[in-house]
């Protein structure tokens, strides 16, 4: 296994965190529906919002007009917003029409938005009422995807946290893996667990409601995404226990994540090495090839996706980059601590955002690469700084061994592009 001791000089787990509470640049939490509706094949996400919400989802997801996606918008009209009609009655009619047209729906999520939260529409009560009407054929839940107080990955966190209280109780000794993964990546993960003899393994979210994901006092859980703070808290309340580990990004992170689970389930060290040797070698080779342009370069993470801490660990430990600042919307020691411990000492660790102050720090540092949101990338590019869109790191398969080279490639591509443009300009 890799040496996972803190780097010389200590890691960043005990580094004082710069906490900023100013103006933020965030993307709407409704965005999480775009990957969740593909993952949960019997679910439907009904956004209770405005036409702007509908346009956002249609454009972000690239859904063609004749497609039948597993999400939609119950439009709040001016009469709804002005309190001139009973919004709950309107919502009930929309749900009835939807379920009559789509009998394949087994899970219906009522998703709050900025407009529904502004008028204080009680979707929790609506979900309880509709569950009584449509149970047991349809389970109705609710969560907020509003961008007023959330980052865009918190949509998934809110969704999964809403599912935890209704999961069936189980006293079985089991592993629950929380966090939506692309099906091909999930299959790779399950294949590794099978070879290691780890099981039973339950998934949250599962591909359909019949997978019978359960939870109880003998459940241990591992997170695949570092933005699942509310989900982790909900699982803790159900009696489950978290397996703390670095996140499975890159060869080192994946090995550490699997090793923590293997130790929990008493897997023999020789078996672990035997199962992971080949994929670890492939990952190291792929990272080395993709990271040639990253070695010795500096990186600045602005807070956006909440993936920043484990990605900073990946880039500094496996791609030989230097982190100038690692900013994240939220930092929880129980979740991010194992990765922070492995980041070489030196960078500023910041939580939250005051965007003007942070932009000043970017301009002063002039990093080789800045990881940021869409709204900040173009202005920084215009100033001659190379950027990577944070949202691309969420939409692209980047977990576990087989995707490690692709992950490094996402960061090296902007630097290769800049180098190529500079050569062409010189000619």
From TrEMBL:
InterPro entries documented for this protein: LIPOR_BchN/ChlN, Nase/OxRdtase_comp1, Protochl_reductN
Name of the protein in question: Light-independent protochlorophyllide reductase subunit N
Gene name of this polypeptide: bchN
Pathway(s) the chain acts in: Porphyrin-containing compound metabolism; bacteriochlorophyll biosynthesis (light-independent)
Example GO molecular function: oxidoreductase activity, acting on iron-sulfur proteins as donors
GO BP terms in the entry: light-independent bacteriochlorophyll biosynthetic process; photosynthesis, dark reaction
EC number: 1.3.7.7
Function: Component of the dark-operative protochlorophyllide reductase (DPOR) that uses Mg-ATP and reduced ferredoxin to reduce ring D of protochlorophyllide (Pchlide) to form chlorophyllide a (Chlide). This reaction is light-independent. The NB-protein (BchN-BchB) is the catalytic component of the complex.
Assembly and oligomerization: Protochlorophyllide reductase is composed of three subunits; BchL, BchN and BchB. Forms a heterotetramer of two BchB and two BchN subunits.
Cofactor(s) needed for function: [4Fe-4S] cluster
Protein's UniProt keywords contain Iron-sulfur: yes
Reactions mediated catalytically: chlorophyllide a + oxidized 2[4Fe-4S]-[ferredoxin] + 2 ADP + 2 phosphate = protochlorophyllide a + reduced 2[4Fe-4S]-[ferredoxin] + 2 ATP + 2 H2O
Species whose genome carries this gene: Cognatiyoonia sediminum
Statement: the UniProt record of this protein carries the keyword Iron-sulfur: yes
Family recorded in the similarity comment: Belongs to the BchN/ChlN family.
Enzyme class: oxidoreductase
SUPFAM superfamilies: Helical backbone' metal receptor (SSF53807)
Cofactor note: Binds 1 [4Fe-4S] cluster per heterodimer. The cluster is bound at the heterodimer interface by residues from both subunits.
Nitrogenase/oxidoreductase component domain mapped to chain residues: 28-383
Keywords carried by this UniProt record: 4Fe-4S, ATP-binding, Bacteriochlorophyll biosynthesis, Chlorophyll biosynthesis, Iron, Iron-sulfur, Metal-binding, Nucleotide-binding, Oxidoreductase, Photosynthesis
Listed NCBIfam families: DPOR_bchN (TIGR01279), PRK02842.1 (NF002768)
């Amino acid at each position: 296994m890799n040496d996972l001791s803190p780097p010389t000089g200590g890691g960043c787990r005990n580094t004082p965190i710069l906490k900023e509470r100013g103006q933020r640049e965030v993307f709407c939490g409704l965005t999480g529906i775009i990957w969740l509706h593909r993952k949960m094949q019997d679910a439907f996400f009904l956004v209770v919002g405005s036409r702007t919400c509908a346009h956002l989802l249609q454009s972000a997801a690239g859904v063609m007009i004749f497609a039948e996606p597993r999400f939609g918008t119950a439009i709040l009209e001016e009469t709804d917003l002005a309190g001139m009609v009973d919004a709950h009655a309107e919502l009930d009619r929309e749900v009835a029409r939807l379920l009559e047209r789509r009998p394949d729906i087994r899970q219906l999520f009522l998703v709050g938005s900025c407009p529904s939260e502004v008028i204080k529409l009680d979707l929790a009560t609506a979900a309880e009422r509709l569950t009584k009407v449509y149970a047991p054929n349809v389970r109705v839940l609710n969560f907020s995807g509003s961008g007023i107080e959330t980052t865009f990955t918190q949509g998934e966190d809110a969704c999964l946290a809403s599912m935890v209280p209704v999961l069936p109780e189980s006293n079985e000794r089991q592993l629950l893996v929380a966090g939506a993964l692309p099906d091909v990546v999930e299959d790779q993960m399950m294949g590794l667990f099978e070879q290691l003899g780890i099981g039973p393994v339950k998934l949250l979210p599962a591909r359909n409601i019949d997978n019978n994901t359960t939870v109880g006092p003998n459940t241990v859980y591992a997170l695949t995404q570092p933005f699942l703070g509310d989900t982790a808290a909900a699982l803790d309340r159900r009696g489950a226990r978290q397996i703390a580990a670095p996140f499975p990004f890159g060869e080192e992170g994946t090995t550490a994540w699997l090793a923590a689970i293997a130790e929990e389930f008493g897997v023999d060290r020789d078996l672990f090495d035997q199962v992971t040797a080949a994929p670890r070698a492939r990952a190291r080779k792929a990272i080395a090839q993709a990271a040639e342009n990253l070695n010795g370069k500096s990186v600045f993470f602005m807070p956006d996706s909440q993936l920043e801490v484990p990605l900073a660990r990946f880039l500094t430990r496996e791609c030989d980059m230097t982190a100038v600042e690692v900013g994240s919307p939220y930092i929880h020691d129980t979740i991010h601590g194992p990765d922070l411990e492995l980041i070489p000492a030196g960078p500023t660790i910041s939580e939250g955002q005051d965007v003007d102050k942070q932009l000043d720090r970017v301009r002063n540092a002039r990093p080789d690469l800045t990881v940021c949101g869409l709204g900040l990338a173009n202005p920084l590019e215009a100033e001659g700084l190379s950027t990577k869109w944070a949202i691309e790191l969420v939409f692209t398969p980047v977990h576990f061994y087989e995707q490690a080279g692709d992950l490094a490639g996402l960061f090296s591509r902007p630097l290769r592009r800049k180098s190529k443009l500079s050569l062409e300009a010189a000619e």
